[in-house]
Amino acid sequence: MSVAGKAIPLSVPEFGGNEWKYVKECLDTGWVSSVGPLVDRFERELAAYVGAAYSVAVVNGTAALHIALLVAGVEPEDEVLVSTLSFIAPANAIRYVGAWPVFMDAEAHYWQMDPEKAIDFLEKECCWRKGRLEDKVTKRRVRAIVPVHILGHPCDMSPIVRAARKYNLVVIEDASESLGAKYKGKNVGRLGDIACFSFNGNKIITSGGGGMIVTDNEGWARKARYLTTQAKDDPVEFIHNEIGYNYRLTNIQAALGVAQLERLDEFIEKKRVIAQVYRAALSDLSGIAPMPSAPDVEPIYWLYTVLLSERTTLERRKGVLRDLIEKGIDARPLWHTIHDLPPYRNSRAFRIENSPRLYEGAISLPSSVGITEEQVRQCALALQECAAKRFSTQ
Ligand SMILES: *Cc1c(COP(=O)(O)O)cnc(C)c1O
C-alpha cells in the first residue's frame, strides 16, 4: 500500500515528474553518495529560485539550522531568540551549539513570531555591556534571532530585521515550512542574514530527507560547506583542523530534490487552490476561523490550518481531532509550545500569551498537493460536523 493509503493523508509527496529519471541517472553513473552533479545542481537551482548568492545542501533542515548557527558565530552560553510556537527543531539546534533559546510569543493575527514582543524583550530585558548585548537576568550575550515562518506564512520581518540591526543580532530564518512564500514581494530565505530550508517528506518539496542553507555571505557559505564535510583541510591527506560533521546530502536525495524543484511553482499554485476551496467551504461558519494571511505576504499554505472558536478548550480540540481521524481524515494539531516542554521548561520565555491558545485551538487539515477539490470539501464538511458535535456538548 502507498503512504497515501490512509483515507485522506495530511501531506504526502507527489512524484510525477523527473524523479525516476534523475534517480536512475545516479544509479547508472554510480554517483550515489555525498557528492555528485545533482547535489551541485540542486544547490544552484534552489539558490537561483530563492535569489540567494550561495547555498549548501545538507542531510536535513535541523542540520541546516545547526550549521547556520555555527557559521553565524553563535557560541556556547549565548542566547538566541526563537519562536515558541514552532516545530522543535530550531530550539534543539540552538542547544546543539551550546547556546540557550529565549522563547518568543506568536502574535494573535497571523500566528508568527511577534516582533513587538521581541523588540520589547531586547529593550527592557537586555542592556549593552562592554560592547555586547546582554540579557540582564542571565548575563548571557544575546547573539541571534531565529524567526520561524510557520505553516507557509512569513513572519513580519521588517521590524525584526530593524531591531536585529540595532542590537547587532544575526537573523537566521527558519524557512523550512515556507519555501516559495513572499514577504513584501521578497522571497522567504532572503529576508535575514542566512536561512534554512527542509525537504523532509511532508514539506512542499521533498528529497526524502534533506535541507539547504542559503546566504549571501560567501565566508559563511564556505565555512558551512567545510563543516558539513567533516572539516577536511587537505584534499589528499586526512588533515582536520576543526570538528566537522557528516551532514552532506547524497546525490540520490538531490535527484529527488531537483525533480521536485522543477514543479515547485505548480505545487504552490495547487496549495493556493486548496486554501481557496477550504476558505470557501468554511466561511460563514461560526466557531471556525479560516487560516489568516497578512496583506503584504504571499503565503504558500503549506498546511491549511484553522482555529476553533474562543470557546474551545484543549479537550474539545482533541475531541474534534480524534473524530476527524476516526473518519479517515488525517488532521493534526499545531506543535505544543516549546518553552513548556520538559527539555526547555527552565528556559527563558518572554510574555508568552497567545501561543498556548493557538496550540490549544488550531487544527491543520489535509493539504497534499495531490488532494482533489472534492476531498478538500469532504474534509471541511467533516470538520464542521465534528466541531458542531463537540461544541454542542459541555
Ligand atoms: C521541518 C522543519 C524543520 C526541519 O526538519 P527536518 O526534518 O530536520 O528536515 C525545521 N524547522 C521547522 C519549523 C520545520 O517545520
**In CATH's first tier, which class of the largest domain applies?**
Alpha Beta
CATH homologous superfamily descriptor of the largest domain: Type I PLP-dependent aspartate aminotransferase-like (Major domain)
Mean pLDDT rating: 96
Q: Kindly state the number of beta strands.
A: 17
Number of H/I helices: 12
Helix content: 25-40%
Key attributes of the depicted protein:
alpha/beta; 37% helix; Aspartate Aminotransferase, domain 1; four-stranded antiparallel β-sheet; Aspartate Aminotransferase, domain 2; 394 residues; eight-stranded mixed β-sheet; 17 strands; 2 domains; binds pyridoxal-5'-phosphate
Task: Characterise this structure.
With 394 residues, the chain is α/β, with parallel strands linked by helices. It folds into two domains: 243 residues, Aspartate Aminotransferase, domain 2 (3-Layer(aba) Sandwich); 130 residues, Aspartate Aminotransferase, domain 1, CATH 3.90.1150.10. Helix content is 37%, strand content 16%. It has twelve helices and 17 strands. The strands form four sheets. Strands 1-11-10-7-6-2-3-16 form an eight-stranded mixed beta sheet, sandwiched between helices. A hairpin with a 2-residue loop joins strand 8 and strand 9. Helix 2 runs parallel beside helix 8, helix 9 packs across helix 12 and helix 10 crosses helix 12. It binds pyridoxal-5'-phosphate.
